[in-house]
Amino acid sequence: MRLLILPLVLALSACSLAPTLVRPSMPVPTAYTTAAAANPDANAADLGWRTMFGDRRLQRLIELALEHNRDLRVAALNVEAAEAQYGIQRAARLPSIGAGANFTRQRTSDDTQSNPPLFGATQNQYGVNVSISAFEIDLFGRVKSMSDAAFARYLATDHGRRAVQISLVGGVADAYFAERLAHEQRQLSERTLADWQQSLDLARRLKEAHQASGVDIAQAEGQVASATADLEARTRAVEQARNALRLLIGTELPKDLPEPLPLQQQPVMTQLPAGLPSELLFRRPDIQQAEQNLVAANADIGAARAAFFPRLSLTSSIGFLSPAMGSLFDGGQRVWSFAPQVTVPIFQGGRLRAELRLAEVRKSSAVAEYERAIQAAFREVADGIAGRETFGRQIEAQTRVVGSAERRTDLSNLRYRAGVEGRLELLDSQRQLYAARQALLDLRRSELGNAVALYKALGGGLTEQDVAPSKRVVQN
């Protein structure tokens, strides 16, 4: 038989025993609980990260991270590995065709005892052939199911790479704001230490003028020592924040970075549109990754089911065989072979049933992972919306607290200098002012962090520029 049997062989590879995949419904509400949360016509995922983060220094850091971060590089290599694995599995659906040539030279032995006696002779044999080796005709879809599973895992790995990029963009922004917070807190500690050092000098002068006691000096010295210790802690926090930023970026911080902006002046979009919960299904790569893992697990069931049925494999070849090289391709030297083989599983010691049960359990696990990914995404968005609605008002209130503490400190300082109040009142007002300013910085950092978290939760960070409405992803 000739290689014309190939179309017939491929046509026989048809049916699949994989169950019909029914994706579970969304295990979350259809709308966010916050009244002003949803805007169906807008979503933060369409915002490019350059629009989201307007600080040019931060933009440059994100560029460096996308180029040098090792986690993102590993994720990209994992995609390449999954693509290669899919190529290997897909190749099993096609016959492996090989060409060969061989030459044999042998001498037969002498047999002088025979009648008539035989004397040894030297014989040559030349051969060429084209062959198909042990190709499985996929009657029950086992090979197809395995190929479909490999393809789904490749897609899942690619979605995983995109999820890593989203986390990286958000992580760099978060680490940058943490570094800015540590830097500004250190500056605040330096100013506070200078102020409290002046207050200590004043207490010493008043003591020399017999207008203050040793208790006042001891209190002032303790205050300065406390500020000194806090300054060292803030210095350590700055270095640790920069180390975290270096790790995310994957390289040393360049010296030609643009000048940073203060936290209060950061051009970050904190009022992000959240869209609808259903949009998370195709905007969140981690959900898409879980979905493709579910598709792969479903295909594995088809392969496990097909293993119960007979396997039909085919080995065939066609070629020429001749004792002389010159007559190798003559018509009479043509040879062929056709060797189909059927293998029927009879007794496997329960292995096939255990493999099917394992595939079914893994699919159930994949369903749970898919639902958990949706629930986690909904919770992250809902938390971000709650922060979006409350941080602004909280910062306004804390700003009033700082203003009140500043006025109290100024008055306490004047009254202390005039001898109307004792040192303890001034000390308390100074400590409250310092704590109020630190709290305001922390709140601004938390507001920026909440905006970053909401941006990540909505699937933002995949694009550098904004996505035009006509180019937005639509999934039926």
What does this structure look like?
By secondary structure, this protein is of the alpha+beta class. 58% of the residues lie in helices and 10% in strands. It is built from ten helices and four strands, in the order ααααββααααββαα. The chain has helices at 5-12, 49-52, 56-68, 70-91, 142-208, 214-249, 280-283, 285-306, 351-417, 423-457, and strands at 97-107, 122-137, 311-322, 334-343. The protein has a four-stranded antiparallel beta sheet, with helices on one face. Helix 3 packs across helix 5 (142-208), helix 5 (142-208) packs antiparallel against helix 8 (285-306) and helix 9 runs antiparallel to helix 10. The two termini are 48 Å apart. The model is unreliable at 1-6 and 470-476 (pLDDT under 50).
Question: Top keywords for this entry?
Answer:
476 residues; alpha+beta; disordered C terminus
Secondary-structure class: alpha+beta
Classify the beta-strand content into a percent band: 5-15%
Major sheet description: 4 strands, antiparallel
Number of helices: 10
Based on CA atoms alone, the radius of gyration comes out at: 38 Å
End-to-end separation in angstroms reads 48 Å
**Arithmetic mean of pLDDT:** 85
What's the β-strand tally? 4
- N-to-C SSE series? HHHHEEHHHHEEHH
Strands ordered across the widest β-sheet: 1-2-3-4
What is the overall shape? elongated
User: Which ranges are low-confidence, i.e. pLDDT below 50, for 5 or more consecutive residues?
Assistant: 1-6, 470-476
The amount of helix comes to 55-70%
Q: In a nutshell, what does this entry contain?
A:
Helices cover 58% and strands 10% of the residues. It is built from 10 helices and 4 strands; from the N terminus they run ααααββααααββαα.
